[in-house]
Amino acid sequence: MRIVSLLPSATEIVCALGLEEQLVGVTHECDFPPSVRRLPKVTHTLIPREASSGTIDALVRERLETDNALYSLDMPVLEAVRPDLLVTQALCDVCAVAEAEVQTAACSLPGRPQVVNLEPMTLEQVFDCIALVGEAASCAGRAREVVGELRARVERVAGRVSVTDERPRVVVVEWLDPLFTCGHWTPELVRLAGGVEVIATEGERSRTMSLEELLEAAPDVLVIACCGFDVERTMQEMPAFLARPGIAEIPAVRNGRVHVIDGNAYLSRPGPRLVDSLEILSELFISSGRHALTP
Fold first, then answer.
1. Number of domains into which the chain is organized
2. E-state strands within the chain
């Protein structure tokens, strides 16, 4: 089977299922495992790579208001790789090629490739997506094994959390300018890791929040995991964030419990590495000592 992945998390799922050799095309953002970077890129984006958070947010809002795409398919490349299966999503208009464009493209390609659409909002639904891709790619048994291994790791975290009484108040920030709460599966991961997300709600989309809302929440632990940014890119934005009025008085900042996570690799991607994200959060929450910013 010739598989094209139209989002990084789907690429990670396909590879976790042992199907990397069947991948014939990926997005321009697919970077894990590193070996997939050699594959043909079937998408491109209008978002400037080095733009500031504020500039990116303004561009995204403008495009969404005018129904102009942020991501587009490179049809000549897609036609050349001749996919049998397209794995895509309709969860977020900002993160990937629009579902309607994918469906139109599938109808125009020779052989009418199957389209599998992933829309997880919770960790359990991510496991369901792994099973769905496994079924579509004729490896349902391997998918069950992968999900079983992931569930076992979640249970190990639950065991560690159960022996501690500390449940810190947590806020996970998904974007710095403007401020965004986390969303979807992340508040659930915070709970499973032993914390209490005090602004965001499990299974709901991320949203903008005011500086006052963050200050009033007064979290014990502040996790910065900017969607699509690695640690180095996020750290470029941190001085301006920490300089904002009142930030220095947040308990997490006063006590040195501000942590920067690679959002691009972990919390932003609904694939197998969400369990890595859970393990990372658990380590941060269980430890009660002082920390510097921890990339």
1. 2
2. 3-5, 23-25, 43-45, 71-73, 85-89, 114-118, 169-176, 179-181, 196-197, 221-224, 258-260
Find, among 203, 205, 218, the residue nearest to 168 by Cα: 218
Tens of pLDDT, residues 255-266: 999 999 999 999
Assigned token pair, 98: 């629009």
Structure tokens at 226: 């900017």
Mean of the per-residue pLDDT values of the chain: 90
Which of 119, 141, 158 terminates a domain? The answer is 119
- The last residue of a domain, from among 98, 119, 140: 119
User: CB-based burial of residue 119 (10 Å sphere; 0-12 exposed, 13-18 middle, 19+ buried)?
Assistant: middle
β-bridge pairing 3-5 and 85-89: parallel
Q: Record the tokens describing residue 269, joined without a space.
A: 């991607």
φ and ψ at 73, to 5 degrees?
-80, 145
Q: What is the CATH number of the domain that holds 87?
A: 3.40.50.1980
* pLDDT surpassing 90 at residue 32: yes
pLDDT digits (tens, 9 = 90+) for 161-211: 888 878 999 999 999 999 999 999 999 999 999 999 999 999 999 999 999
Model-level pTM? 0.90
Q: Nearest CA to 1 among 115, 131, 136, 109?
A: 136
DSSP 3-state assignment of 244? coil
What would the two tokens of residue 241 be? Answer: 């964030």
User: For residues 169 and 220, is the Cβ–Cβ distance under 8 A?
Assistant: yes
Q: Are residues 95 and 169 both part of a single domain? A: no
> What's the domain range around 236?
150-286
**72 and 20 inside one domain:** yes
Residues 170 and 257 in one domain: yes
